[in-house]
Amino acid sequence: MSTSKSREIIPKRVKDLTGQVFARLTVMEFAGLNFKRKALWSCACECGTIKTVTSVHLMTGDAKSCGCLHREQLAKGPCYRHGHCASKELGTHYSREYQVWRDMKGRCSLRSNKKYHLYGGRGIRVCDRWQDSFENFLADMGHRPSSKHSIDRFPDMNGNYEPSNCRWATRKQQSRNKRNTRLITHDGKTLCLADWAAIVGIGPVSLAK
Fold first, then answer.
1. Are residues 124 and 174 in the same domain?
2. Which helix (H) or strand (E) holds 103?
3. 142: closest CA among 176, 175, 100?
4. Rounded to an integer, what distance in angstroms lies between the CA atom of residue 72 and that of residue 47?
5. Is 204 buried (19+), middle (13-18) or exposed (0-12) by CB count in 10 A?
6. In this predicted model, what pLDDT tens digit does every residue of 109-129 receive, in sequence order?
7. According to the model, what pLDDT value does residue 50 have?
8. Whole-model pTM?
9. pLDDT for residue 180 is more than 90
10. What's the confidence (pLDDT) of residue 206?
11. Do both 102 and 80 map to the same domain?
12. Can you state the angle between helices 134-141 and 96-109, rounded to 10 degrees?
């Protein structure tokens, strides 16, 4: 009789990550569910260590190694690369830009995210340049102009998160860039109804008639 441990059966609702690589971790096999019913994966780190990690931490980039990366970063000082605390392993505070980056990826990649149906569920994705690199995201977007700005997909509100389709925008700007916003094109220029009304000098309701 074989004494080897039988492999865990992957539930149908769990996305199979076997063979995928996340930073220094390569997923070897499904390792069951934790007490919160989250999928666990047995991963091999580049340094040779085996570590069990949840799907969420792999897909959001919170888990990048067995801990060896954490030790290397600590040796160089916390947040040494960009000053925004790029890893939960450091146990340090996230900047708002870093939090925006994490939330953006969660909305597009994690089915458990409350807003997934509005983003990833509609086919909206984060571009390859930003998916695994906060540094690239920060280089392309820069710092938020103010605490009133958040990331906005513009000019294509149905497009992906990528350098050519994203900006820091105020709530007012974002309210004019929604799927139900009425756009009007005149003399080759396209603006929302509210913007044309402001230019013409009449109320949006009157202009819409």
1. yes
2. helix 96-109
3. 100
4. 12
5. middle
6. 998 899 999 999 999 999 999
7. 95
8. 0.50
9. no
10. 53
11. no
12. 110
